[in-house]
Every structure is written in C-alpha cells, then in structure tokens.
Amino acid sequence: MAAIHPSPASRDRIRHLAGTIKWAPAPVWGESAGEHKRFVAYLAGSMLAWAVAGLVLAALIGTALGLVV
Length: 69
Hints:
Elements: H1 8-23, H2 33-65
C-alpha cells in the first residue's frame, strides 16, 4: 500500500485553517438579537463539526481495523 502525503500547499492551507480556528474569538451571548443569533449559529456549527469529526474518525478506525466493508 502506497503512503499518501499531502502537497506542501495543502499543508499550508491546513496549518492556516488550524491557526484561524485556534485564535478566532468565540462569540458571546451578548444583549442584542443579532448577537444571540450569532452565538446560536456558532454553537450549532460547532456541534455539527464535532459530530462529523467523530464520525470520520470512527470510520477511519473501523477501516483500519477491517470492520467496515
């Protein structure tokens, strides 16, 4: 099985995305309706992203163990 290595450009994009996510401030509840909507959207997006990440990781582990056909 051949090893898969990302291109340098892909590594830079991933590194930039990780830095953006790491240092971006999370929204707070605030006082206005706009701030409330932004907070709820952030919370829902975060939950969805973690769920997708968990499913992808489970699929990768299952594939590595030969459980997924």
